[in-house]
Amino acid sequence: MAKVSIIIPTYNVEMYLVECMESVVNQTLKDIEIICINDGSTDGSLEILKSYAQKDDRIVLVDKENGGYGIGMNIGLDKATGEYIGIVEPDDFIPLNMYSDLYEKAVENDLDFIKADFYRFKRDSETEDMELVYNHLSPNKEDYNIVFNPSETPKAIRYIMNTWSGIYKRSFIEEFHIRHNETPGASFQDNGFWFQTFAYAKRGMIIDKPYYMNRRDNPNSSVHNKEKVYCMNVEYDHIRELLVRDKEVWERFRSMYWLKKYNNYMGTIKRIGEEYKREYVHRFSDEFKRGLELGELDESVFTKISWSNIQFITKDPNGFYMKKVATPVKVRRLTKKVEKLEKQNAKLQNDIKIIKGSRSYRLGWFMLTIPRKIKALFKGNK
Amino acid sequence: MSVKVSVILPVYNVSEYLRQCMDSIVGQTLKDIEIICVDDGSTDDSLEILKEYEAKDKRVKVIEQKNAGAGAARNNGLAIATGEYLSFLDSDDFFEPDMLEKAYEKGKSSNAQVVVFRSDQYREDLNEFVQVKWTLREKQIPPYRPMNCRSFTGNIFKVFVGWAWDKLFERKFVEENHLKFQQIRTSNDMLFVFSALAFAQRMEIVDLVLAHQRRNNPNSLSNTREKSWDCFHTALNALKDALTAHGNFWEFEQDYINYALHFSLWHLDTITGAKKEVLFNKLKNEWFAEFGIDSLPAERFYDKKEYAKYLKIKSNEFNAYYEE
User: Burial of A54 by CB count in 10 Å (0-12 exposed, 13-18 middle, 19+ buried)?
Assistant: First the structure.
């Protein structure tokens, strides 16, 4: 049995895929299985994966029609045979010692999962300069390097959410049949995976050493996609569905569910296009009104500002939209004016360039400047 | 031919309206359907009319039962249905020609287990159609899909109505969940419909008026409710049992209690005759407690007016309650 199965769900990432694959196949932990799911890429991703698969028999390549992240990930989970499971997004990469370090710690402590701090990076395409930001999973030092029971520590759900900065014991994933939402066209399916792993794990650990390198300069990644307005709502409906299967699990995690939902919906408002924002605020309001009506929100887990936002948005969604969301008309008008002036300015600059470059301008310059200089010479003599 | 929709139609002494109803079913633009007519021991010539249609149209199947009510008739029809979806219609109503086509296409394209569409009322006495908005409260339905009852932002028992004829149900889903109609005189479809709404993973709506419910028909069951004044109590209890058996009554309990109060008050307000006082006392002394209304904290009631009525009933005798 391989020590770690690494799942790489791949869709149209030819620009980044080689860097990712190099970082995985060259891991110092050799006893690994690499499951690449090509989710119907239309660029050269599949060819890149094929060439790796030919050279390295640890690679399992699954080529399927495009069906979305969740289905692809679930196929990977179904295929995995390793003792632990890791996930690498194909536009990211990892340091070569990541899985050997994590695996060693996981086995030593018999962990259901272990997660490490990570970096987010942007790389300038011309200069290759890398901008790195260290991300702490938790702001509290004392949360690190200890074995804790996630299923009884709902507040741990607040750690920075991602599914790829660690590894999961496969027998644990299978015991609770933890999978991703398969709704076609959905996004943010890692939220549901995150909630499930925390709701069911008995032994977890986070460590304060950074490994995973998460790219933030890929314009195609979904956070920049403005069309998928309600994907987050679909995912949170799905998470609720999973949690309410067991009354006790729901009771334990419902306040965290609403907290995460709030934070993600606030993020969604920023992410979506101006034309969707008012409608979104109304749906946000209706959902939270319902949550309050059912007595499911817990004030004590929210910050003061968040709680007052919830009061505001549920009582007066239009007011909330106007005051907190919509770009004020004045600002919009001024922005437009600035844009217009900038355009005019650019055009005038260009005109100046053309004029300065023309023969008649240069001739005129000589005709005016030379006599002036001679004049000045005479004046100076006086 | 694979049957796309099985129409199940219980028929009992409706010869006056039956032709209009049958014509609007056999004339549906969706052709791949079967029409299962269950004669519930009619004493007029309803059965003859059905046989006439059966002789003309192979898609019509007539089965007969001794008078046992619409609930039993629907279950008998359901038992022999072969369609992908099920449509339970009432024999005094009539339908838009594309009702089944629109609802079926919607259900099929989104793999929905329940499809709900709009309806209005045909007021026979006035000879006009009256809009009925509360059968589908679109403000409480999410603007995204997939949706199920957990994505509603209002009481899940009030977003749609507890009758079956403005909905299409996937047969596989109905069979897997062993959904059945109750054999009671009125409210016999409430258990079926609300269980379906609570259990469905995927629902869809068609935001068009596709069916017309006949009103002010003096023979209609809802006009003779005095005979079946306690059926809603039986139906509500059965719904609670079904949700409990499914393991999630706890999740819907608050909605259930609010709905039980709403439904109780509607019955009390609309029932006439000697049974009104009987119902008043039953509610006050037994059923409000049984439904969980007595033990729900005041702030958990959605409709403050209904809650005030409840308090008034609890603290008054029948005659005093109706004075003023």
Answer: exposed
Co-location of A174 and A304 in the same domain = no
The enclosing H or E element of B246 equals none
Last residue of a domain, one of A172, A205, A224: A224
Residues of A in contact with B153 (CB under 8 A): 286-287, 289-290
Give, in order, the Cα–Cα distances in Å from A345 to each of A42, A332, A350, B214.
42, 20, 9, 71
On the question of pLDDT at B221 being above 70, the answer is no
SS3 per residue for B21-85: HHHHHHCCCCCCEEEEEEECCCCCCHHHHHHHHHHHCCCEEEEECCCCCHHHHHHHHHHHCCCCE
Same domain membership, residue A60 and residue A124:
yes
**CB atoms inside a 10 Å sphere around CB B274:** 9
Give the whole-angstrom CA distance, residue A114 versus residue A84.
10
**DSSP states of A338-369:** HHHHHHHHHHHHHHHHHHHHSHHHHHHHHHHH
The structure tokens listed for A217 are: 């300069």
Residue A146 phi/psi, 5-degree rounding, is: -130, 150
Backbone phi, psi, residue A61, to 5° = -105, 125
Query: What does the pLDDT look like over A175-210, one tens digit per residue?
Result: 999 999 998 767 889 999 999 999 999 999 999 999
> Up-side HSE of residue B97: CA atoms within 13 Å toward CB?
3
- This prediction has a pTM of 0.88
Give how many domains chain A has, as a whole number.
Answer: 3
Tell me: do A291 and A367 sit in the same domain.
no
Burial of B281 (0-12, 13-18, 19+ CB in 10 A): middle
Max intra-chain CA distance, chain A: 103
Every domain of chain B and the residues it spans:
5-224, 229-322
Name A207's bridge partners: A116
Q: Considering only CB atoms, which chain B residues are within 8 Å of A279? A: 143
A189 and A309 co-located in one domain: no
**Closest CA–CA distance from residue B299 to any residue of chain A (Å):** 9
Share of chain B above pLDDT 90, in %: 91
**How far apart are the C-alpha atoms of A236 and A149, rounded to whole Å?**
23
**How close B311 comes to chain A (CA, Å)?**
20
Which CATH number fits the domain that encloses residue A14?
Answer: 3.90.550.10
- Residues A99, A181 share a domain: yes
DSSP conformational letter for A322:
I
Would you say the ipTM is above 0.90?
yes
Same domain, A194 and A53: yes
Question: Which of the four pLDDT bands, split at 50, 70 and 90, describes residue A329?
Answer: confident
DSSP B129-176: EEE-GGGB-GGGS-SSSSB-GGG-SS-TTTSB-S-STTEEEEHHHHHH
Asked if A9 and A127 sit in the same domain, the reply is: yes
Let me know whether A189 and A235 are in one domain: no
Which of the given ranges, A337-341, A372-376, B145-149, has the highest pLDDT on average?
B145-149
CATH of B5-224, one of 1.20.120.140, 3.90.550.10, 3.30.200.20, 3.40.630.10: 3.90.550.10
Give the domain range for residue A241: 225-326
* Cβ distance of A244 and B144 shorter than 8 Å: no
Cβ proximity of B181 and B192 under 8 Å = yes
- 8 Å CB contact of A293 and B248: no
Among residues A173, A204, A224, the one where a domain terminates is: A224
Report chain A residues whose CB lies below 8 A from the CB of B254.
Answer: 294-295
- Among the residue ranges A192-206, A347-361, B288-302, the one predicted with the least confidence is A347-361
Q: Longest Cα pair distance anywhere in chain B, in angstroms?
A: 64
Enumerate the residues of chain A whose CB falls inside 8 A of the CB of residue B109: none
Q: What DSSP letter does each residue of A194-210 carry, written as one string?
A: HHHHHHH-SSEEEEEEE
- Strand pairing partners for A287? none
């569409």: which residue's tokens? B117
* Structure token digits, residue A5: 């199965």
